[in-house]
Amino acid sequence: MCEIYSSTPPLEYEQITRSVRLSGVVTSIRLERRFWAILDNVATQEELSLGKFLATLHEEAYSVHGEISNFASLLRVVCTTYLVKYQSPETVA
């Protein structure tokens, strides 16, 4: 039943930590490799570097909500939102 999920290569869910500058402060974000790949795609689609995309997203989310309690979680949700929005119609069956 879960073979499509359980067969995911461990490299895909390996956690990667990257340093980014958000609101002028350097911070570390740890996400699974697959999420970093999706974020790279989103940034490319937005015609931004990954760092600029993350900084812009952080600024906009802070402007809307006044705080961001868990930016890494927001990034994971951004990834799933992106995948749902751009999922090809033939895979939705």
- Count of alpha and pi helical runs: 4
- CATH architecture descriptor: Orthogonal Bundle
Distance between the termini: 17 Å
Number of strands: 2
Please indicate the percent range of residues in DSSP E strands (runs of 2 or more).
Answer: 15-25%
Query: Overall mean pLDDT score?
Result: 92
Reading the helices and strands in chain order gives: HEEHHH
Q: Please identify the oligomeric state.
A: single chain
Q: Evaluate the radius of gyration.
A: 15 Å
Largest sheet: 2 strands, antiparallel
Shape: globular
Question: Quick one: CATH superfamily?
Answer: protein bp1543
Number of separate domains: 1
Structural class: alpha+beta
Output the strand order for the largest sheet.
Answer: 1-2
CATH first level: Mainly Alpha
What share of residues is helical? 40-55%
The CATH topology label is Ribbon-helix-helix fold
Q: Outline the low-pLDDT stretches.
A: none
